Structure formats: structure tokens, C-alpha cells
Amino acid sequence: MFKSLLIATALTTTLFAGGAFAAAHAPQATIHVVTTDSGKVYSDAKGMTLYTFDKDAKGVSNCNDGCAAKWPPLMAPAKAQGEGQFSVVTRADGSKQWAVNGMPLYTWIKDKKPGDVTGDGVKGVWHIAKP
């Protein structure tokens, strides 16, 4: 069901343009493509659907505090680097978050099992991240 996407630091050892990245710095998050009732979507390593937020700007997360409690960001390690359509944004608190096409990625606390897509369309500003 899962098709892993190669993103920077997603594998135990990943090569960057500047050289090898040590396994000790590899993230715990890998982005996958899964098939749901809404078609193919991006998911986290646990198969939970990833979403984007219309109130974010490219490269900027505007979902903090209470928002982030409901829409947990897909966190990236401090030294993560993006590759291709995947990038890393710095959150207001200085932590790092994965993004696709510059848009930060989130899960939704009301999705209870892999493949759930209950966050799509919430308040008209949350949307499934699709390949």
C-alpha cells in the first residue's frame, strides 16, 4: 500500500549534492504515497494523510499553538535539507517542518487510522496534499 518517496534524509544514509549525510542525522519521518477514498495522497510514515493549509504562505507555517495541536506539523530534523519538490521550512519557534512545493505539511488529529481523510475541506482552508 505504501510507496516510499525519496526525500532528503529519508533513508538511513542519503546522498546530498555536498556529500553523504550520516545515518545518525536521518529523520524519523518519511513521506509516502498511499491510496485512499480520495485517491492517491501523501502520508507520513504511519500512513496518516498529510494536509496543506491555505493560510500558510510558501515557505511559511502560520499554524502554531492551538492550531498545531489540532493539525500537528510533519516535523523535520534540525539539519534536514529538502530535495526536489520537498523542502524544509522553519517554524515560528525555530523548529523545522517538511513542505511540498513550499507548502508546509500537517496531519489531522481527527484522522484515527491510516488512509483517513477527514481533514479535507475543514473550514474551507485545509486540503489533502496530493502527488
Describe the protein.
- This protein is mostly beta strands and 131 residues long.
- It has one domain.
- The protein is built from 1 helix and 11 strands; from the N terminus they run E-E-E-E-E-E-H-E-E-E-E-E.
- The strands form 4 sheets. Strands 7, 8, 9 and 10 form a 4-stranded antiparallel beta sheet that branches.
- The radius of gyration is 14 Å and the shape is globular.
- This is ATP-binding protein.
- One of its GO terms (biological process) is alkane catabolic process.
- It holds the Pfam family Lipoprotein_15.
Strands, helices and their partners?
Layout: E1 3-4, E2 14-16, E3 19-21, E4 32-36, E5 39-43, E6 51-53, H1 66-70, E7 75-76, E8 86-90, E9 96-100, E10 103-104, E11 126-128
Antiparallel strand pairs: 1-4, 2-3, 4-5, 6-11, 7-9, 8-9, 9-10
InterPro entries: Lipoprotein_repeat (IPR005297), UCP029720 (IPR014558)
Keywords: Signal
Protein name: ATP-binding protein
Give the gist of this structure:
With 131 residues, the protein is mostly beta strands. 4% of the residues lie in helices and 29% in strands.
What features would you highlight for this structure?
signal, globular, 1 helix, mainly beta, four-stranded antiparallel sheet, 29% strand, 131 residues, UCP029720, three-stranded antiparallel sheet, ATP-binding protein
Task: Provide the domain count.
Answer: 1
What class, by secondary structure content?
mainly beta
Mean pLDDT: 82
> How many helical stretches?
1
Q: Strand share of the residues?
A: 25-35%
Tell me the Rg in angstroms: 14 Å
Q: Which residue ranges are poorly predicted, with pLDDT under 50 across at least 5 consecutive positions?
A: 1-28
- The first-to-last residue Cα distance is 15 Å
Shape: globular
